[in-house]
Specification:
- With about 600 residues, this protein is mainly beta.
- The chain has six helices and 38 strands.
- The chain has a single domain, classed as TolB, C-terminal domain (Neuraminidase).
- The strands form ten sheets. Strands 7, 33, 34, 35, 36 and 37 form a six-stranded antiparallel beta sheet that branches. Strands 1-32-31-30-29 form a five-stranded mixed beta sheet, with no helix packed on it. The chain has a five-stranded antiparallel beta sheet with strand order 6-10-9-8-38.
- Helix 1 (about 95-115) packs antiparallel against helix 4.
Length: about 600
């Protein structure tokens, strides 16, 4: 039986806003036409569309601008970024050879971009689609204290809620996917029943160099790197590196996806780089401390969804490489940050490895049908490929294995889970239970397709004795079935048997109209909707008391945007009753984003 809840609406007034349909993001549905804007301008799909201006880009001079300006749909806001030492060679004056190389390479890039824009971009790489409406970027916002609050903030909500997202600093010059944007962290700090808000870019090596150059020069992994033009952009980038115009030796990642608080550090992550250490200041602001390699122990990239064991305090992680073997590695960190040796996971091809799961004893590693084939770029296609001939499988390995010899594979045909919500052991049946959202078509996020996207919450059982698997949809009533993506279980019970999952209702795709509380034992679903014309993202579950006997004793926190009034807020919902407890009105727009976490006040005081 399903129930629904919704908060009361407020009274702000703003022009009506519409968003691109699911087909515009690369999926079929009731479609509307693409915006008829010039390729080099990005607009929100408003009734009277305003142009979204980015900082004025510089060309060929490689000089550091003092400030950047990013207007939103409101008047332009001038902002100064935190000062950082720019270790790239672009901070030094260029010699004659470098100047000549810069001019030549810029000319080649201009011709390449002009050629690309002569042909329609796929919807999965068209910036007019990917970053329109409330997917569009915002400027940094310094701390605003004493925010208006409706209702009462629960006493246990004491600390800071942080959420990551993609927020391109510069206007895309060609192809751009939503996942390509620079990382920006949004933070709401709670102290004594009061709330503050700030958002800041994570100052990655990539962002620092592009900010110094005044324009984007690093290739965009999804929006640009496809076909022959993608190869050309890679060659341009590495040629700039040869001449010392850019420095890619310290990573090229955007740190825009995941957040984890581990060993007294908040880490911002994307799977194309090392994590970045971000500090939360005493007044609720954010500062990037730098690229974090765990005191020289981490030599490779780390995926954006490491798993923090709530009992041992250890952090478990994966790293994948799309170019050379080993394509996939597993490792862990002790609660004090000491890294284990890498364990190679044997896979035939580089595999899209966005997420995995842990239990009390095991790590569960999906090897699914979305793979990387760089050779496809030579044929003019995308390197992210759905391999129909491959059979999806899950690898089961002891969490403390020193090598991959004990790895056991269990096939799970026609299964692609972008996210896994939890897993646990059931010794009485020799099974591991994995909870995930099975997505079809598997590559629909990356490649344009006509088939409508479905994301079905599923229970996957892996039998350790027989090596067989079963899979079923947890919500059996088709009338209650909805797309469920982005969310979590009670993280104090990660890797253990859990009854509830809290997941975003990803409808109408790609927007999120609310969240669902799903009983994983019975399939019962209860829905909470954010309100008329309101959409949000990942629901974060915050336990009221870690020692509570009730697993669902806590609160859901979620950023919500009102597309009619063009205002953003943070909603706090009682997870047991699904009643709205409090709403924090935010001083600026919060774009739809990715994943977040909560750091309690005690941990904040002990930051490294």
């Amino acid at each position: 039986m399903a129930t629904t809840s919704s908060p009361a609406t407020n009274t702000w007034i703003k022009p009506k806003i519409s968003m691109p349909s699911s087909r515009e993001f690369g999926h079929s549905s009731n479609s509307i036409s693409l915006l008829k804007n010039k390729p080099n301008k990005i607009t929100c799909s408003l009734q009277a569309p305003p142009i979204l201006h980015f900082p004025k880009q510089q060309s060929s001079n490689y000089q550091t601008p003092k400030t950047n300006t990013i207007p939103t749909s409101k008047p332009t806001t001038k902002i100064s970024h935190p000062k950082q030492e720019n270790k790239s060679s672009s901070s030094s004056p260029l010699n004659l050879v470098q100047k000549a190389a810069a001019m030549a390479l810029d000319a080649v890039e201009s011709v390449l971009t002009k050629h690309e824009l002569e042909h329609p971009l796929p919807k999965t790489a068209d910036p007019r689609v990917q970053i329109s409406g409330n997917f569009a970027p915002v400027p940094e916002n310094p701390v605003t204290q004493s925010l208006p609050v409706t209702g009462k903030i629960p006493k246990c909500v004491n600390g800071v809620y942080v959420r990551n997202g993609a927020n391109p600093l510069f206007e895309p010059t060609a192809g751009h996917h939503f996942f390509d944007g620079d990382g920006m962290v949004h933070a709401v700090q709670f102290k004594n029943g009061s709330a503050s808000y700030a958002c800041r870019f994570t100052e990655t090596e990539r962002l620092v160099q592009e900010k110094a150059l005044g324009r984007p020069v690093f290739p965009k992994a999804i929006g640009e790197l496809h076909g022959h033009s993608g190869i050309a952009r890679l060659m341009l980038f590495y040629a700039r590196g040869v001449f010392g115009l850019v420095d890619h030796s310290n990573g090229t990642g955007v740190a825009n996806a995941g957040l984890v608080y581990f060993n007294n550090r908040l880490l911002a992550m994307s799977e194309d780089d090392l994590p970045y250490h971000v500090r939360v200041t005493a007044n609720g602001d954010l500062e990037t401390d730098g690229r974090f390699d765990f005191d020289g122990q981490l030599k490779s990239t780390m995926i954006a969804h490491p798993k923090l064991d709530p009992v041992s305090g250890e952090l478990f992680a994966l790293s994948y490489d799309v170019i050379q073997k080993p394509y996939l590695k597993y490792f862990r960190f002790s609660k004090n940050g000491e890294k284990s040796n890498d364990v190679e996971i044997p896979v035939e091809d580089p595999t899209m490895m966005h997420d995995f799961a842990i239990t009390e004893k095991f790590v569960v590693i999906p090897d699914q049908q979305v793979v990387f084939k760089m050779s496809e770029m030579i044929r003019g296609g995308s390197p992210v490929v759905y391999d129909k001939n491959k059979v999806s499988r899950f690898g089961i390995l002891d969490k403390y294995a020193k090598d991959g010899s004990g790895l056991k594979w269990v096939e799970v045909p026609d299964c692609f889970c972008f996210h896994l919500w939890n897993a646990w052991e059931e010794p009485e049946t020799d099974e591991l239970v994995v909870i995930g959202s099975c997505m079809t078509p598997p590559d629909s996020i990356f490649n344009e397709c006509d088939e409508g996207l479905e994301s079905v919450l599923s229970e996957i059982r892996l039998n350790l004795k027989t090596g067989k698997s079963t899979r079923k949809a947890l919500i059996q009533n088709e009338e209650e079935q909805v797309n469920l993506e982005a969310g979590m279980v009670n993280r104090n019970k990660l890797g253990r048997k859990t009854q509830y999952a809290y997941l975003a209702i990803a409808e109408p795709w790609p927007k999120v109209s609310g969240f669902a509380k799903v009983d994983l034992f019975t399939g019962e679903i209860n829905k909470f909707f954010y309100g008329d014309n309101k959409y949000g993202g990942e629901p974060l579950f915050l336990p009221r008391d870690p020692n509570s006997k009730d697993e669902d004793d806590g609160y859901i926190l979620a950023f919500v945007h009102d597309e009619k009034e063009w205002k953003s807020e943070l909603q706090i919902v009682n997870a047991m009753t699904l009643k709205l407890e409090a709403t924090v009105k935010l001083p600026s727009r919060v774009p739809y984003g990715f994943h977040g976490t909560f750091i309690n006040a005690k941990d904040l005081a002990n930051q490294a």
